[in-house]
């Protein structure tokens, strides 16, 4: 059984485009849970271009499933997470100006920094996960940081899936075997979609959780458009 955590960044992007509260991020999270998702993920970025720090404060009292906050552990992010105590924090080494997450941790170079940060979250009962590329050296390095889980960065899989899906999954499945052997939990995310998720799940051992946002929200638009347009047409008769 692999948990689905829905990343709601893109719902906040849409809300922020108009400056009001439509769509309502908190209501969306509640609906997503009511529809069966097993977690809500947010990734507040320093410029708050989608999820704002206040959204985290609003969501933490409302989310009934697993609340997962992702981000680069700078002092502001650490304070936000430590004050709100989600079930899980996912550490991502994003530069401030990136369009989206584009790399995993060098878990060897940043070992002592990660050890320190992870220890402060775990001391507050927050499960930790660190975002890594699918390379065995980063998994071994992750083990040494004391993290509970890794999150495998799946962009390379999503791209490779288009050309040779069996080749694309190989490093992920091997890293999952190693992580499990080392006693680490296994999450995965980035560019997973309705197109590639079934193959990913079927070929990934020990997969605890996936977090999916961009494609899932786009797919919800595609699948919802027909029904909404029909409703408008009905009212315009
Ligand atoms: C950590 C990760 O994989 C990202 O997918 C991220 O959570 C998405 O962030 P954006 O929504 O800002 O692209
Ligand atoms: N951790 C990955 C995530 O939350 C969602 O990534 P994406 O589906 O928006 O690419």
TrEMBL record:
It catalyses: 3-amino-2-oxopropyl phosphate + 1-deoxy-D-xylulose 5-phosphate = pyridoxine 5'-phosphate + phosphate + 2 H2O + H(+). Pathway: Cofactor biosynthesis; pyridoxine 5'-phosphate biosynthesis; pyridoxine 5'-phosphate from D-erythrose 4-phosphate: step 5/5. 3-amino-2-oxopropyl phosphate binds at residues 7, 18, 191, 213-214. 1-deoxy-D-xylulose 5-phosphate binds at residues 45, 50, 100. Its main location: cytoplasm. The record marks 151 as: Transition state stabilizer. Gene3D superfamilies: Aldolase class I. Belongs to the PNP synthase family. It comes from Psychroflexus planctonicus. Homooctamer; tetramer of dimers. It holds the Pfam family PdxJ. This is Pyridoxine 5'-phosphate synthase. Keywords: Cytoplasm, Pyridoxine biosynthesis, Transferase. It is found in: Cytoplasm. The active site is at 43 (proton acceptor), 70 (proton acceptor), 190 (proton donor). Its EC number is 2.6.99.2. The lineage of its organism: Bacteria, Pseudomonadati, Bacteroidota, Flavobacteriia, Flavobacteriales. Catalyzes the complicated ring closure reaction between the two acyclic compounds 1-deoxy-D-xylulose-5-phosphate (DXP) and 3-amino-2-oxopropyl phosphate (1-amino-acetone-3-phosphate or AAP) to form pyridoxine 5'-phosphate (PNP) and inorganic phosphate.
